[in-house]
Amino acid sequence: MSSSVTEEIIARQSSEAQGIIRALLAEIAALRAELDDVRRQVQGKTPQNSSLPPSSQHPHAKSAAKTTKSSAKKPKQKRGGQPGHTKHERPLLATKDCDAVASLKPTACRRCGRKLRGRDGAPLRHQVWELPPIKPHVTEYQRHRLVCSGCGESTCAALPAGVPTSTAGPRLVALAGLLMGCFRQSKRRTALFLEQILGQPCSPGWVVKLQNQACAAARPSYDELVAALPAEPVLAMDETPTKERHGKAWLWTAVAPRFTTFAVRPSRAATAVSEWLGDDFPGVVGCDRARMYLSLPRLQWCWAHLKRDFRALVDSGDTRAQRLGWDLGAATKRLFEHWGAFRAGTISRCALVRRMGPVRKRIAQLLTRGAASGRKLDAGMCRELAAHQDRLWAFLKHDGVQPTNNASERALRHAVIWRKLSFGTQSAAGSRFVETMLTLVETCRQQQRNAFDYLIQAVEAQRARRKPPSLLPLPGP
Q1: pLDDT tens digits, residue range 91-147?
Q2: Which residues touch 87 (CB under 8 Å, ≥6 apart)?
Q3: Closest Cα partner for 304 from 418, 424, 218, 395?
Q4: How many Cα neighbours within 13 Å face the side chain of 24?
Q5: What is the value of pTM for the model shown?
Q6: What's the pLDDT at 64?
Q7: Cα–Cα distance for residue pair 118/18, rounded to 1 Å
Q8: Pairwise CA distance, residues 451 & 441, whole Å
Q9: d(CA 361, CA 418)
């Protein structure tokens, strides 16, 4: 539009119109310059060289890192298990544990037709699994109200201990909570499942009540885990955006070796970290290079994130930045090779530290070179990494510290999928349910516990006014 508006056209307008036109043309030019700058920044960004989530890339898109030469080296293999793969089979139940046993004997020889008698000492066993017809178990409590013949006062029988005033039993509450918190079903889908599969009359409004009951039952265990966080020597932390009602919110996670906690907070600021861990947390936190973690004294920056940053230099188009990116990427590859050998148990920690010596020296040299380059593309990043190299190598000094924060990103994966399906929560109570159930499900997975059994016990304990079972791991030997 600006190219079609010439000076001759502007000159034919009134003085006020000329001022307005020139102001609009200047604003258009500024917006175009800003748009071009954003396009230059976004151009070429992929999940391999930036913080873009893997879901932002089409599954059929070819990675820029893969070349025809590298793919040609891969041997062609058939789909499925490869030779040497351990076979996995469902073991047969013991005959005494089967609900019914049908003994099948042939009546005649398949060749000559002669009648057969006897018994096979080791018959072929074939077991068929089937679900029984599902029908809710309903118990009616008839509370009689009797009138005293002496004083005329009426007295109604109380419910037995452990019987809820609610119409839902512990197993039903636990199932409804897990259908939403573990299996990512909406309230309407949960109500549909309960009604059509289990034969339980249900509505979305009643599902909300069941959700609140499940959250209240598990909340004491959640609070106990949060209170234990400041005493953990090693944590992995991460956060992802979400929504609460119509506003922005953030879902945080902190992963300890034996349990995981989640929290929905309205901010991404460092106050959320201090609220969880306190102002003088003595442990090591694995994280990305986000600013809110800098208040913590001991950090381990994620090398998986750094690997993507180095890949971004390779894809930048600047020749010198590409060379630096290739060199840093090669050193990072050696780092992960040594770490992989240590995790596999083929080398000791002392051997790991010794092998990392040349890698550390090489990376320090490359960071110094990048910091002195004067290029806006990489100088700032290299200066920051060179100035805080203790945050790159904490995993060599402290047991249990990983060079990446993959543990926290894996913990967030289920939550991110749930958020995409539900578009966040509609209330503070919904956010409390989300953080409580995510904590319960992920912690039970880490401890190889049955989340359904645990939630049943928690609901039963709450209704009996007892403390629910603890999710804190037992102290080691």
Answers
A1: 899 999 999 999 999 999 999 999 999 999 899 999 999 988 888 999 999 999 999
A2: 81
A3: 395
A4: 11
A5: 0.78
A6: 45
A7: 110
A8: 6
A9: 43
pLDDT tens digit string along 56-76?
555 566 554 454 445 556 667
3-state secondary structure 222-282: HHHHHHHHHHCCEEEEEEEEEEECCEEEEEEEEECCCCEEEEEECCCCCHHHHHHHCCCCC
Spatial CA neighbour of 328 closest among 395, 394, 285, 373 = 373
Given CA atoms 428, 460, 201, 451 in this order, what sign does their dihedral have? positive
Q: Are 281 and 295 in contact (CB under 8 A)?
A: no
Which tokens hold the place of 367? 């960071």
Quickly tell me which residue has 């005293």 as its tokens.
Answer: 148
More confident of the two residues 154 and 86: 154
Q: Take residue 409 and report the two structure tokens written for it.
A: 């990103």
| Residue 475 near residue 185, CB atoms below 8 Å | no
pLDDT of residue 45: 66
Q: Is 154 helix (H, G, I), strand (E, B) or coil?
A: strand
Who's near 180: CB < 8 A, 6+ residues apart? Answer: 186, 187, 190, 207, 211, 433, 437
**Pairwise CA distance, residues 468 & 447, whole Å:** 17
CA distance 8 to 14: 12
Paired tokens of 444: 């039970």
- For 4, which DSSP code? T
What lies within 8 Å, CB to CB, of 447 at 6+ separation is 258, 259, 471, 473
250: Cβ contacts below 8 Å, ≥ 6 apart: 239, 240, 241, 242, 264, 265, 266, 267, 268, 272
- Mean pLDDT over 267-288 rounds to 89
Q: Which SS3 state, helix, strand or coil, does residue 156 take?
A: strand
